[in-house]
Amino acid sequence: MKNFKRTLGRIPLKLYLFLGAALLISFFYNDFGLVDIQKTAVILAVGVDRAEETFSVTAQIAVPKGNDRTTGGTSAVEIEGKGKTISDCIEQIYYKTGWVPKFVFCNLILLGESLVREDVFCALDFFLRNEYMPDSSLIAACEGSAKELLSSASAIDDAASLALEKLFSDAAKNAGTVMKTTLREFAVGYYGADESGYMPYVHALDQASGTDGSAQETAEGGKQNVAQTEKIYSAAQTALFSKGKMVALLSSEETFLYALLENNVSTGSFTAKQGEEARSFTVLREKGKVRLNIDGFPSVSLTLRVVLRTNDRASASPVGDITEGILSREELDKAERTLTDLFSSLWEKSVLGGCDLFRLNRTLYRSSPEKYREWNKTLLFALQPDFSVQAESVN
Amino acid sequence: MNRISARQLFFFLACIAPVGKLVLMPAQLVHDVGNDLLFPAAINCLLQSGAVFCVLTLVRSQKSFYTLVAERAGRAAAKIILALLMLFLFYAAIMPILEQSLLVQNIFYDTLPSVLTFAPFFLFSLFLCAKPLSCRGRLWDLLGPLAIVAFVGVLAFSVGQADFGALLPAGISGVGSIFKGAARSLGWFCDSAILLVLLGKLEYRKGIALRGMLFYLLGGAAVLLFLAVFYGVFSDIALRQIFAFTKISKYFSGITVLGRIDFLFIYLLAFVMAFYCSLPLHACVECANLLFGDGKVKTPLYSAAVNAVMFSLTVLLNLSFLRTGEVILYKLFWIFLLFCLLLPVLSVFLRRTPHEKF
User: Fold this and answer.
1) What's the fold here for domain A251-395?
2) ipTM for this model
3) CA-to-CA distance for A73 and A64, rounded, in angstroms?
4) Are A45 and A60 in contact (CB under 8 A)?
5) CA distance A303 to chain B (A)
6) CA max distance for chain B
7) pLDDT score for A57
8) Residue pairs spanning A and B at CB distance below 8 A
9) Which of residues 18-77 of B touch A (CB under 8 A)?
10) Among partner residues B111, B250, B256, which is closest to A33 by beta-carbon distance?
11) What is the dihedral of CA B274, B279, B280, B286, to 10 degrees?
């Protein structure tokens, strides 16, 4: 009996040791799902195109330095995968390269022109489901093919995606030159009562560069210099979406006004033209307000208050004027007229496209679900907007 | 004998108990009631704080739950009730531990790792559960401030992105759905059942019941604030955002420059959670101690047995999480109703002097 008790007394320590050893062995007898960095494709950006029922995904993958393609910074290669689903395409990229695609660092999803004609969530569904894809990544539409744009040689950075991300900086947003959006924000709009959204529309511009050619191997094994057209990019236009489809395109000026109404601008500038004369103004302070009134027949009033300073008179001015930058009433009227005209075209484009740019359906739903059910299909078309702008000069 | 002081208990009620409700409960509530997620959570917080009050009125007697029941209803009844409570606590531990294991696998790894990745938790839990339950008091002293720092950090990073208007229109899901949502989220409010096991180990202080209730309500208010920010950030896609507390802070504008510094707070919260989700197992071992006797040999054996079974369950249910949640939280929600509300409220009748001050 004593022996039994002694044996029993030893059990806990042995049990601990045994269980501890078993767990530690089993714990370290696996690779924790970690993948060798050499076998990993760190995806910087993806471009998605569509040709009828087939998707094409171009992944811009960061590759280790020392590669011939670059002498410094981040070098990247573009690999394309095609398939019936985005997942299919990603699998193809894996088969082609042997690299495990990792989305953790993917900061940009670029949607080609062919894709945005249909509901883009047929492609975005994959990214929204993927637990490893950050939904804080930026999303943009582009002119032409996303593959071509991502594969183009940037004049300002090593990879096109890195150059594009510069366009979407906070400084650009504060200047009102871009209306950037993330996957999360776009998805919230799509699944919300407004079923609408926007994203920057990117297009590439040639940057003349005949001398800076890269060496390319010929079939005979020799090398020859090939002139490469480098690109610069613009994201000043904004694509409007309704139910996931692109329905309109805002010009850079309309984009600026939209940014003002969304209270995004802190140091932007715009130009007012009248006849031969042109004046540029800096927005020092702004307050945009959208108010939906649902008492009786619905109406919407949009008000914008801006404090301006002269930025450029495009003519020689007295030094005192340059120093103070005070605007005359005439100039303020001109600025107000310019903004009002821009608003008319902005409103028209969004309504014709069915894009609820100011989230009026959402406001209606939040204040009265009954009226929302009654009006949600016709609200945008029935509303007569009352837009008022009040420009003040810095003094 | 070491006892848990009132301060330590209040730390648990206000700071540690809310932490367990930040993982899957927010998305679960959105699934049931959409933008009305605050209502079922508030109902449960209020009911649970009442239950906490009832249990804490028994602290003055300085007797264990088993002794109190035995004095009133006899030892046989006490043993049956304690055995049922033990089984319940084991049952109540399944969801939090499964949650924690999924969290570790999905958030802390960038590919889906082996289920064994979570195995060391059970080694830690085995050690912890073999210790006297009163050792939790000192842990709460340490974990309470950590939980506050982590919670405030996560909220500070995310509140700027929240659109609180998304919570409107209030009550759109209907009263029926709200109560259904409350019933289905009862599984995250087991704190009063755990307090039953702590009876006899809590140091009495005048007004402990009332203050305990108020501290629990304070923790509940923190949970409600978190839920409001969570829905404000994700709005119509909140349902998709499981592991809520790891998701809401990543949209902070500074993150693009500084990197995921919010992970400091997320890791801190996960650390506190690891202690919290082993607590029902610890309480379960304590019940076994009261039922079958304790000792240097027996307690570690109970701990090993409880953790081994839970480890096996975690491996088995790892890929059936949704189904498991459906059974435990939806179909068998009444079990939580019995043990987390009815039993604690009825326990008030175990008091000898009904008119004593709390």
Assistant:
1) GMP Synthetase; Chain A, domain 3 (3.30.300)
2) 0.84
3) 10
4) yes
5) 21
6) 66
7) 92
8) 88
9) none
10) B111
11) 150
